[in-house]
Structures are given as structure tokens and as C-alpha cells.
């Protein structure tokens, strides 16, 4: 059963200069129960066991839920409130010390980055905070402070692991985007030539297997498929804007064999290049016919207006009697 606890551990006269715990606690909040706005002179790390709520730090809001947590930093205006329908249950530990800021910075926790997300399924953080509360209840005779400090170090180390994994993931994503951009650059410059996947790999400076991986991961298709799609797209553009023959279009997009080009075009676009050209011609004929109809309609309107003007002139001549 989740209990509400606030347990004082130390005061300013009994502190470790490097890292020390002031207090810890847990609470099952009522709907819309809030904390702050207020400022403290130490750090607090919260972990959300259940429910959800909103954190506001320097007027920036964060929606948080079970499995996430947040940092309250010293000398920073902070406010948080439980959700009305699913109020959160959370635990916390308050601490300070000369190395606290540096440790939290390495865990990517600060005023500007006050939240974290535990994506692992091992319940490690939840157990840590539960142990922190249990050790705090032991009293002074059970060496509780050393045990609690060990838990705090475990919490911070775990948060650093989370930050390191995210950093590696972001770096990997950035590098994959770079490789994809380089590969697309090569394809754009050389699609009219006979290019191989090996040549693309050499240009990007990665092996073929990894090139295939980054394409599938970022574009959801293989490099071969992308090259074919790009060539067919360019072939369609050429057909719309030139009178080249099918063989000329094939050569323009890197195919020496017209029949191979036609086969890939039909497989990709759904119709043969010849049919595509006929469709374009029919579309143009329809467009020209529409334009002719519009011109005829406009001429009819002009003729009607001319007749109305002439009738008005005749009326004026018939009914206008100048005064002599």
C-alpha cells in the first residue's frame, strides 16, 4: 500500500559537504493538489509511481505521467499540480552538496531540462525510491544514512545511464541522417549514369549493409528501390517537359536498355512509358479544348456587350433632342 511520508534525515549542521540528504517522502495526491509556486535552496528529485500531472518551471510547462520524474532546482520558481482525473502518486528525495550540480548535469537534469523518462521495464527507480523510504523509517540505530546515500548514488547513476543512452541514440540518428543526405546527394547528381549501390556506399563512406540499414530505417525502402523511384520520377518530369523518345528518356535517367527501363517504369508507375505519354497528350488536348471553350464563351460575352452598347447608342440618338 502506498503511504504518505515526509521523513527528515539531516539538518544544515550535520551535512556532508559533497552530497547529503535532507529528507525524503512519498505522497498519494488528491485531484488538483498542487505544490508551489515556491523556491527552495536545495535539489529535489521526484519519481512518479502512478497517475499524471503538470510541472511548471520558470513558466515552462511539462505534462508528466507514470514512469517519469522531475527535478526541482534551488533558487528556481517551481510549481506542480496533480491531474484532476488521474492524480499522481510520487516519491522524492531532497539533497544538496558541492557535487550535486555536476552529477545532475551529467544526468542531463537542470533548470532548462528538468524532466526524465525511465523507458526500462525493470522498475529499478521505483524500487530505489521505495527503499529510500523504508531505510528512512529505520531510525538512527540501523545505519540508515549510509544506506540512503547508497540509494541516492544509485538513483543518480541510473539517471546518468538514461541520459547516456539518449545521447548515443541522438548521435546515431544524427549520423544516419547525415549518411542518408550524402547518399541522396550522390543519387541526385548521378541518376542519369549507371550507378551501383557499391558506388553510393563508397561516396558515403559506409559499407553496403549499413547503407541498406539507414535507408530502411529512415526512408522505409532499400537504396535500390530509392534509386529506381527517383529515376522514374525524373522520367515522368522529362516526358511532361520534352518531346524525347522513350529510348532518349531511358538514357536520360541512366538506362541503356530501353526495355529494362520500360519494365521498371510500368512496375513503379503502373503503366508503360508509352501509355504515360499518351495520357499526357490527352490531358493536354483536354486542356486545350477547355481553353478554346473558355475563349469562345468570352467572345460571346464580348459580342453581347457590344450589342447592348449599340442598342444604347441608338436609343440616345432616337430620344435626345438638343435645345436650340
From TrEMBL:
Q: Name one GO molecular function term.
A: sequence-specific DNA binding
Q: Kindly give the Pfam families that the UniProt entry links to this protein.
A: AraC_binding, HTH_18
Q: Where is the HTH araC/xylS-type domain?
A: 181-279
Coiled-coil annotation reads 288-318
Keywords carried by this UniProt record: Coiled coil, DNA-binding, Transcription, Transcription regulation
Q: Which PROSITE patterns match?
A: HTH_ARAC_FAMILY_1 (PS00041), HTH_ARAC_FAMILY_2 (PS01124)
Presence of keyword Oxidoreductase: no
Q: Which SUPFAM superfamilies match?
A: Homeodomain-like, Regulatory protein AraC
PANTHER family for the chain: ARAC-FAMILY TRANSCRIPTIONAL REGULATOR (PTHR43280), HTH-TYPE TRANSCRIPTIONAL ACTIVATOR RHAS (PTHR43280:SF28)
Q: What is this protein called?
A: AraC family transcriptional regulator
Organism of this sequence:
Vallitalea longa
